[in-house]
Amino acid sequence: MGSKMLEVKNLVFHPVDNGTEISIIEDISFTLVDGEMLVITGPNGGGKSTMAKLLMGIEPLDSGSIILDGEDITGYSITRRANAGIGFAFQQPPRFKGMTVSRFLSLAAGENLPEKKCCDLLSGVGLCAREYLNREMDGTLSGGEMKRLEIASVLAKPHKICIFDEPEAGIDLWSFSMLVKQFEELHAEKKESLILISHQERIIRMADRIMVIKDGKVDALGPKEEVFPGLMERDTGCVCMNQSHRS
Predict the structure, then answer these.
(1) What is the per-residue pLDDT across 77-91, written as a single tens digit (0 to 9) for each?
(2) Which of the ends of the chain has fewer CB neighbours closer than 10 A, N or C?
(3) Closest listed residue to residue 1, CA positions, set 226, 230, 247, 224
(4) What is the spatial distance between Cα 232 and Cα 226, in angstroms, rounded to a whole number?
(5) Residue 163 phi/psi, 5° resolution?
(6) What is the pLDDT of residues 113-165, one digit of tens each?
(7) What is the DSSP-derived secondary structure letter of residue 110?
(8) What DSSP line would sit under 192-242, residue for residue?
(9) SS3 for 164?
(10) What is the radius of gyration, based on Cα positions, of the chain?
């Protein structure tokens, strides 16, 4: 494995809700090296999605630092982090009325993509390409379709690090298999480091290392061979054995 690409140091996030400070993330530190796949799992409500949003700059840190390729990006905006090489796929993607799928993918790529490239991206996430190119990113698309388009948009542009927040949520078994294949290919190429937040056994088994977040803290972190057996032994709510059929 390569050198350190991402260094996350002592992240703390204590938002205030109705005048009360809440501890969501408490002193989380980890590193990610070039070409590595880190899967973050753990019980629901433990802080996994918040952790991802802190890395992307969607939520503001209370303290701690984020270093990317030796550059401190802690104070960077979302756009500046994206330009620095971080890609992000939301668990619940936003909709954009009036924007076509092909335009959405071109914006994500930072250039006007030819139709073939758009079709390849859509096919890669399990969508019949020509049926979607001119569709609008609005309420006519199901949650599963939106999720797949969101992931296609991340794949439209090379990144240093891609963060996928529960990519399996809201999609059917066939599309899930297509996504796993995409992740396997990305990981095999070792051109991008991957952070996947997931409960799915099939995705967790792909990891180089696994981090378990529980109650806003790192409950376990290490090579898959060390951490995964413990996940299976304990009823932690971390691992889903089967992928559900969804829309």
Answers:
(1) 999 999 999 999 888
(2) C
(3) 224
(4) 11
(5) -110, 125
(6) 999 999 999 988 888 878 899 999 998 998 778 888 888 898 898 899 999 99
(7) T
(8) SEEEEE--BHHHHTT-SEEEEEETTEEEEEEEHHHHHHHHHHS--S--BSS
(9) strand
(10) 18
